[in-house]
Amino acid sequence: MNNVKNVLIIGSGPAGYTAAIYASRSGLNPTLISGLEPGGQLTITTDVENYPGFENPIQGPWLMEQMKKQAAIFGTNIINDFVKNVDLKKFPFVVETEKEIFHSYSIVIATGAKAKWLNIEGEREFMGFGVSACATCDGFFFKNKTVAVAGGGNTAVEEALFLSNLCKKVLIIHRRDKFRAEKILQDRLMKKENIEILWDQEVKKVIGDKDKKCISSIEVLNNKTKAKKDVKIDGFFVAIGHAPATSLFKTKLKMDNDGYIITSPDSTKTNVDGVFAAGDVTDKIYRQAVTAAGMGCMSAIEAESFLNLKKII
């Protein structure tokens, strides 16, 4: 079979680009298929303050562009296409994109995960300018200010707890009259004096200044009384969970109940030998650019070891 790739990387966020950088520097000549949203979630993130190496805030899209350039400089073949189907039962593996068919001895899956959004008025407009889905990423920008968190599961309670250590006041807005979160998290939440819970309520609109690109309040609907009111806040965090981009691999790889790819402990190896998963596609706990990049590094090193054992390189 002609032109079989050593490493094929599916996805182009921090995990995908880092895997490409390490694989390129190892002489593996990787090919990276960027997907429908090149750069992943960081392309909709404005100020990034917690990525190591930068004393001043940097822009998420800029960081992704730098990673892309670095991968290309070292020799990664970056293709602007998206994968439609994979066959992991054949070896070399078969990857079909919109434009062509690839064969590869190893695959790194770095398709990431997307935050679930409320899809309400103003949400997308102020995304990155007061609206966020990641407290650990953006919470610092609201130090000593008032913020609201929408949700009632583990994600919402964890985000609220994190924010309570930074913000003057945290409002949790939940459409039901009790949380779905684990009891231990709820117990911690109830002990926080600067957290207030608005039960049986939904956020219907994000209100702000379009020119200044900042939010001033949210419109909240009481499910029982049907009364609406505006709640003044400085930041709004949507915490209704994340959805990993793994539908392509359903029934082909082991996943948990939420659709995250299961990897071996302290590894990016999946249950299929030669297939690796890195970044948010397998990580439901941290979901940070730096941890995704770390797993991208691991996947490239493990792919190289796999290729050596198979005597392919």
Explain how this protein is built:
- The structure is a single chain.
- 22% of the residues lie in helices and 26% in strands.
- The chain has helices spanning 14-25, 60-73, 135-138, 154-164, 183-190, 289-309, and strands at residues 8-10, 31-33, 47-48, 58-59, 77-79, 83-87, 93-97, 101-104, 107-109, 113-115, 131-132, 146-150, 169-173, 195-198, 201-209, 214-222, 228-232, 235-238, 242-244, 275-277.
- The protein folds into 2 domains: 8-114 and 242-309, FAD/NAD(P)-binding domain (3-Layer(bba) Sandwich); 131-238, FAD/NAD(P)-binding domain, CATH 3.50.50.60.
- By secondary structure, it is α/β, with parallel strands linked by helices.
- It is elongated, with a radius of gyration of 21 Å.
- The protein has 6 helices and 20 strands.
- The protein starts with 7 loop residues before the first strand and ends with a helix.
- Helix 5 (183-190) links the parallel strand 13 and strand 14.
Summarize the structure.
The chain is an alpha/beta fold and 313 residues long. The protein is built from 6 helices and 20 strands.
Q: Helical percent range?
A: 10-25%
How many beta-strand segments? 20
Q: Encode the helix/strand succession as letters.
A: EHEEEHEEEEEEEHEHEHEEEEEEEH
* CATH level 4 superfamily of the largest domain: FAD/NAD(P)-binding domain
Estimate the strand proportion: 25-35%
**General shape:** elongated
CATH class of the largest domain: Alpha Beta
Q: Total helix count?
A: 6
Q: Radius of gyration, rounded?
A: 21 Å
**What order do the strands of the largest sheet run in, or round the barrel if closed?**
5-2-1-9-20
Number of domains: 2
Distance between the termini: 16 Å
